[in-house]
């Protein structure tokens, strides 16, 4: 049976919510984030993207590209509430909804609840309902697997949709630059280019042995997607592997007391998730990024799951103290708890992620 998969991706989600809620922001270049010092753009409106402003870009770079850029602080509680509205719409059509973040999800509509004749019609109706109920637009990709549906959703953004049928899949991939493949980042694309792999056709011409020799375990995946093959199912409840929090500070931290205050703040975020979800984990990891952008991580796996904020903090502090004396000021601290398990040893559910598209 050929699956019918839809990838729904909200258009400039955070920025669009802000423009919806404040008419004065509509039609203007807008960034969600913090506009000074070491701030980073969390999301950019399409008006801002026209100037080359992108998410994860330093605010100073964004302002250099677009001096008229307006910054608004993120309101994650609002974004999460809107995301829940959208999720409820999805569930009217299928129980097989796999959220990737607040603003995107895969849907398997092979057997949709509305009995609509095609995935194309289903995507059109879902997008129309999102617009009617939230005043926001969404784009959709429709195909026979997740990899192609994800690629398709980018084709007619914003406020559009695109279909890749089984008969079109291999040809669509053949003409695509490997840097546009979902799951192939800039560094991997550069490596492929050095090996003479620039397009899907080039990738398909390399045999499995060559790809595994050069890309390890990922070689099998690249071999498959070059042929339009992706057997991954849409999985509503994906096991969560870790819970983490990190932040970049407005100024470099140089004193141990400051560093440990930063660790404490990250621990509060992570332990807050543990309390809300009832989950915990056994491996604590601390990430440090120095002022010169060199990064180090330290981890410790405990014999049993972390059972209190105090234990999490004490473990994290011991790890960071192993880096004293500091070789340079610290610009970023992160704390992650992994090897997660809930009190009943069942899977911990994947939470909504604060990512903008």
Automatic annotation (TrEMBL):
EC number: 2.7.7.7
Active-site residues per Swiss-Prot or TrEMBL entry: 104
CDD domains hit by this protein: PolY_Pol_IV_kappa
Pfam families per UniProt: IMS, IMS_C
GO cellular component: cytosol
Cofactor note (record): Binds 2 magnesium ions per subunit.
Residues reported in the UniProt entry to bind Mg(2+): 9, 103
Listed cofactors: Mg(2+)
Origin superkingdom: Bacteria
Gene Ontology biological process terms, A to Z: DNA repair; DNA-templated DNA replication; error-prone translesion synthesis; SOS response
Amino-acid biosynthesis recorded as keyword: no
Reaction equations catalysed: DNA(n) + a 2'-deoxyribonucleoside 5'-triphosphate = DNA(n+1) + diphosphate
Residue segments, region Disordered: 230-250
Gene Ontology MF terms: damaged DNA binding; DNA-directed DNA polymerase activity; magnesium ion binding
Compositional bias of kind Basic and acidic residues: 230-240
Keyword Cell division among UniProt keywords: no
Site positions per UniProt: Substrate discrimination: 14
Location relative to the cell: Cytoplasm
Annotated keywords: Cytoplasm, DNA damage, DNA repair, DNA replication, DNA-binding, DNA-directed DNA polymerase, Magnesium, Metal-binding, Mutator protein, Nucleotidyltransferase, Transferase
HAMAP family in the record: DNApol_IV (MF_01113)
Family of this protein: Belongs to the DNA polymerase type-Y family.
Protein name, as recorded: DNA polymerase IV
Organism field: Sphingomonas sanxanigenens DSM 19645 = NX02
């Amino acid at each position: 049976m050929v699956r019918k998969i839809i990838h729904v991706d909200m258009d400039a989600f955070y920025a669009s919510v802000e423009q919806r809620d404040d008419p004065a922001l509509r039609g203007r270049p807008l960034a969600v984030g913090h506009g000074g010092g070491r701030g980073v753009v969390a999301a950019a409106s399409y008006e801002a993207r026209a100037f080359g402003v992108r998410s994860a870009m330093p605010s100073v770079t964004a302002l250099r590209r677009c001096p008229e850029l307006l910054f608004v602080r993120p309101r994650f509680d609002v974004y999460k509430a809107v995301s829940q509205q959208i999720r409820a719409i999805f569930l009217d059509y299928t129980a097989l909804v796999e959220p990737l973040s607040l603003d995107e999800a895969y849907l398997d509509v092979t057997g949709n609840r509305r009995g609509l004749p095609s995935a194309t019609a289903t995507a059109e109706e879902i997008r129309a309902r999102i617009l009617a109920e939230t005043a926001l637009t969404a784009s959709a990709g429709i195909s026979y697997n997740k990899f192609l549906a994800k690629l398709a959703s980018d084709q007619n953004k914003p406020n559009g949709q695109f279909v890749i049928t089984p008969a079109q899949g291999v040809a669509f991939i053949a003409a695509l630059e490997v840097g546009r493949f979902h799951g192939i980042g800039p560094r991997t694309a550069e490596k492929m280019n050095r090996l003479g792999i620039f397009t899907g056709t080039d990738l398909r011409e390399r045999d499995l042995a060559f790809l595994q020799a050069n890309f390890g375990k990922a070689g099998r995946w690249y071999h498959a997607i070059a042929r339009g093959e992706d057997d991954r199912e849409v999985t509503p409840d994906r096991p969560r592997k870790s819970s983490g929090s990190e932040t970049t500070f407005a100024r470099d931290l140089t004193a141990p007391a400051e560093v440990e205050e930063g660790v404490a703040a990250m621990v509060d975020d992570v332990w807050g998730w543990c309390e809300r979800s009832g989950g915990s984990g056994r491996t604590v990891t601390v990430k440090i990024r120095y002022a010169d952008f060199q990064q180090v991580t330290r981890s410790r796996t405990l014999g049993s799951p972390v059972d209190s904020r105090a234990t999490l903090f004490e473990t994290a502090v011991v790890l960071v103290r192993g880096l004293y004396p500091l070789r340079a000021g610290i610009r970023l601290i992160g704390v992650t708890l992994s090897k997660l398990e809930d009190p009943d040893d069942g899977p911990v559910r994947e939470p909504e992620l604060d990512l903008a598209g």
